[in-house]
Write a sequence for this structure.
């Protein structure tokens, strides 16, 4: 890994705005199955919103990430889809993402869970082989876990939202026109600033 940046999550190496870090990563964001699932979940008004890398440090036993639902970070967003791409196999020991099936129908966990870092009733671990794509409704409760093993548990998180939701990072000027079209990124030039 080239470094660490972004949200300060103890025990996790993180890189943000992967789509702005190289053409090879653009291809993952426009992977046809992911785009089709995003369109079906969100509608034709779908757009790319975020692309980040998470790597819980092997052997680091700090507390788990608080369970949360990503759409709540974007109050104007009517629909949100997470795609978690497993670079490595995810196991119970190396910190497979925890999630709560059916939780997209519940209030946000901060409103009903006493300690979001502790296990939550009904949670499961997203145990899967490397190369798996996990699709999560934007209101599904989920969270990273500590990596108790000596093996890596690297994942790339992609977020897709409605067009009215600003991207996590302004990247439009770094994308090719073809990638912008496929991601639903539309640009307008305003003096001294490129906006989406």
């Amino acid at each position: 890994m080239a470094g660490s940046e972004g949200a300060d999550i103890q025990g996790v190496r993180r890189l943000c705005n992967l789509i702005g870090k190289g053409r090879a990563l653009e291809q993952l964001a426009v992977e046809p199955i992911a785009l089709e699932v995003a369109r079906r979940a969100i509608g034709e008004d779908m757009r790319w919103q975020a692309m980040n890398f998470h790597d819980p440090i092997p052997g680091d036993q700090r507390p788990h990430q608080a369970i949360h639902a990503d759409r709540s970070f974007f109050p104007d967003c009517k629909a949100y889809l997470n795609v978690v791409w497993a670079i490595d196999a995810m196991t119970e020991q190396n910190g497979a993402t925890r999630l709560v099936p059916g939780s997209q129908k519940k209030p946000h966990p901060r409103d009903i869970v006493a300690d979001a870092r502790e296990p939550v009733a009904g949670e499961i671990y997203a145990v899967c082989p490397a190369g798996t794509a996990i699709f999560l409704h934007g209101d599904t409760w989920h969270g990273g876990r500590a990596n108790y093993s000596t093996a890596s548990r690297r994942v790339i998180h992609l977020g897709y939202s409605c067009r009215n939701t600003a991207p996590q990072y302004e990247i439009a000027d770094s994308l090719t026109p073809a990638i912008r079209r496929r991601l639903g990124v539309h640009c307008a030039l305003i003096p001294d600033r490129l906006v989406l």
Q: What stands out?
A: The longest strand covers residues 46-56. Residues 32-42 form the longest helix (11 residues).
